[in-house]
Amino acid sequence: EYREISSCSNTGDFQARRMALRYRPEVKQAAEDETAAPKKGGKKKKAKKPKPVLCHTINGSGLAVGRTLVAVLENYQTPDGDVVVPDVLRQYMGGMEILKKKQ
User: Fold this and answer.
1) Are 44 and 12 in contact (CB under 8 A)?
2) Which pLDDT score, from 0 to 100, does residue 90 have?
């Protein structure tokens, strides 16, 4: 009765390596406390920024267009063959509310 439009699995940092997708972790509070207090006679040191690390991605981040279209048709087709455009897609369809079946 229903079709799968996407499957997801964790690919670790494999995909992120190719697109150099990284993030910088937050500075740990303990590290801030240690560097914030000046040493005897020394200058106050700034907390070091952590190095950027690769994100872990999911391989189903996008949707297969054909499968997604089938899902919209299955859920929004009326008995007479017209298709009601979902509210969230109307802005991309020039405000069109119904796709009429050709006669």
Assistant:
1) no
2) 95
Joined together, the tokens standing for residue 82 give 């017209």
CA distance 38 to 92: 57
Is the pTM of the predicted complex or chain greater than 0.85? no
> Cα–Cα distances in Å, from 8 out to 36, 42, 62, 64, 83?
43, 52, 10, 12, 28
Selection from 26, 27, 20, 28 nearest residue 55 by Cα: 20
Question: How high does pLDDT run on average in the chain?
Answer: 82
| DSSP-assigned states of every residue in 11-50 | EETHHHHHHT-EE-PPPPHHHHHHHHSPPTTSPPPPPPPP
